[in-house]
Amino acid sequence: MPNNKKNRRNEKSRKKQESEEEEEEEEKDSKKKKKGQNGRKQDDSNDKKNKKGGKNDKNGNGKNDKNDNKNKKKADSSSDSGDSSEEEEEVLTEEEVAKLKEAVEEKKKLIATLRNQPWQMKRKLTTLKEAHEFVDKFEGSLGKGKGKKFYAYKVMMQKKWMKFQRDFENFRTACIPWEMKIKEIESHFGSSVASYFIFLRWMYGINMVLFGLTFGLVMVPEALMGKPYGSMPRKTVPKSEQATAMDFPILWDFGGFSQYSVLFYGYYNNQRAVGWLKFRMPLSYFMTGVGTIAYSFMVVIRTMASNANEEGGGDDTSFTFSWKMFTSWDYLIGNPETADNKFASITTSFKESIVEEQENRKEENIHLTRFLRVLANFLVLCCLGGSGYLIYFVVRRSQKFAQEGLDDYGWWERNEVNMVMSLLGMFCPMLFDVISALENYHPRIALQWQLGRIFALFLGNLYTFIIALLDEINLKLEEEAIVKINMTIWEASLYNGTVAENATAPPLEVDPADVPRGPCWETMVGQEFVRLTISDTVTTYITLLVGDFLRALFVRFLNYCWCWDLEYGFPSYAEFDISGNVLGLIFNQGMIWMGAFYAPCLPAINVIRLHVSMYLQCWAVMCCNVPHARVFKASGSNNFYIAMLLVILFLSTLPAVYTIVSIPPSFDCGPFSGKHRMFDVIQETLDNDFPAWFGKVFGYASNPGLILSFILLMVLAIYYLHATSKSYKTANLELKKKLQNQKEESKKKNKKVAEKMAVDLQEAKSSQLKQDNSTKAVGRARGRESERNQPGQNDGHLYPPSGRGMRRRPPPPRIAVTRPPGPRGPGMPGYLPGNPRHPGPRMPRGPNPYR
């Protein structure tokens, strides 16, 4: 009987389980049709399983076994349904898509702004990794239906494009030459010293472009397609010079084989088209010279305009030290060396700001300052006049040596002009620096005055040198006229007596080395500029090694055994001479622009010079120099350098343009030989290679009246733009002043409101204190009256019980409360802060009567 009952119960439980399973499957199908979630269905089914398992546990072991079988069946059915749902498309409701999209956008914002969070690097990395994993996992599920794959593909391509842009930006930053070196120098020596190296790098880029133009359009075509060496007199060393053509002193002076090479103007042939490409060599030479000057003007003016736009105007000194204190550090730094550089940079910027603040608050004696500044300018003018006269005297003396023959003189007489100019450029800036100590200017203004004076020195020396060169050119032209007559006589003597007058015979073959030739003043000018560039470079490097390196070695190793402190006394470590080095660059670049037309090798020489100077001077400034005693901000120094460069560019092009337009070219050397003027190559090209109407249009366009009117229109446009920019700048300054005044007014209003609130709060506290004191006094008065009305009661146990043998003690004295009580402690519940606790009845403690 009990077995039959158990079997019946098991059958009933099986039927119930099967019916429940069928109901659950129907519910699943309905939920699928209604776009329900598969995960939630499985959770519900699992919950139901757990409940049923709990019920079966009450029924016994047999029920547990059946429950296990049932759970296995349900697990199999849920796995089958999960597999089928994975095969089908997952469909999300609109609310879930919106929430998921919002979560993805939040993660993206977190990734974008994670760098600015003041967290530890470990926390940043873990957060970044989690955010990337979340975005990668759920961003593709935002698509719907058939567009899901396309959406995932689009998201993938967007990520790849963003990664490419980031990698390309990093690659472009890494490709900037010497960026880390300049940053390191800026961190230790300030932005003023770093501005020089930035300017040097910029000059290096310009000279690379100039070198590419001259090398690709002039030197390479002549070397590959022109006539070879020895084919004509202008490309052959004369026999009288061949014995010493390879000697080092001759090559150092750029004579011998270097003179008759593609390095100089005289080597190039005047043949209109050379090689199988029919390359127009004279036209290319002329247009390359004009193009280099035009490109230089364009780059310099564009850089000045961009720097002016970046500078803006107004006062940006509000809360300078607070900004530097709380926002200077970069929390992404992970390299100790980078951290040291950043620390040094922040320290240097604080020094710069302190100097600025001291200069703004400085008071001075205006009359004494004016007298000292006038005296300093007078001394500077005397130095400039003396240097100009010395250069003119040396150049005239060198012309005298050239007429008498340089073979009888030594090395100094041959290179006297170059050495004197280099020595003046080396010692005069030091003298100007000593004189500038009298003026007591701000360091930045003192640097600008120093630059202006050295600029005037270099410019005066350069123009004195050019005037002397023009005198020498006139002497060469006179010599050329004599050479023409002698060549006519030589040709007549060559043909005289060898060929009859009416006979026809092949021309005589003459060795090009035996043909007499003219002086070729263009090659002479190119040689002078190359020599001047080389001597200036050598002088700069020797000064760097002797004045900085050997001086630093002397101070470093002899300081321990010397009579005084060499580091803080004389001679001490050298400071980096910003003004001298900047003006040396500008002066050298002016010589390149002036002489590149006659010596195509000059841009290549300058590129090598700048490349070596960057490494050598970076090493010297980090190893041999110390920071300036008064560190100051650059604050537009680069723009001041470029402004001086623009002036030297304009003044350098004037002599070149004068020689091209006014002086006739040499008759037997250079690409323009045989022409009346060098620019005649333009008219020749128009007549031979262009139609007639184009030549007429060009002739009308080159009319002086039209050119002058165009120049006048350009001047008016420049004046208008300058006036407009000045008005915009003034308006910008006024707006900034208004904003500053508005900010100050708002500060004053906030301060007044805060003061008023403080006064109101103090009044409220005082009134509350008075009210508390009055309530206490009233309470004490009422207590005294009650004591007087009921003298014999002891209900409150205020006094000890009186008895035989005991004296009655008087009540304790009451003291008026004249100040608010202290803060409420943790053991005083029920009383708010600021509300005094009224004392209740106490039992005064007397002597114990029971002993």
From TrEMBL:
GO terms for biological process: detection of mechanical stimulus involved in sensory perception of sound; vestibular reflex. Residues 725-756 form a coiled coil. Pfam families: TMC. InterPro entries: TMC, TMC_dom. Residues 83-94 have a biased composition (Acidic residues). Residues 520-635 form the TMC domain. It is found in: Membrane. Residues 836-851 have a biased composition (Pro residues). The chain crosses the membrane at residues 202-224, 283-301, 371-395, 419-438, 450-470, 591-612, 640-661, 697-721. Residues 764-776 have a biased composition (Polar residues). Residues 1-94, 762-851 are annotated as: Disordered. It comes from the Eukaryota. It is a multi-pass membrane protein. Keywords: Coiled coil, Membrane, Transmembrane, Transmembrane helix. The keyword Transmembrane applies. Its main location: membrane. GO terms for cellular component: plasma membrane. GO terms for molecular function: mechanosensitive monoatomic ion channel activity. Residues 40-77 have a biased composition (Basic and acidic residues). Belongs to the TMC family. PANTHER family: TRANSMEMBRANE CHANNEL-LIKE PROTEIN 1, TRANSMEMBRANE CHANNEL-RELATED. This is Transmembrane channel-like protein. It comes from Acipenser oxyrinchus oxyrinchus. The gene is tmc1.
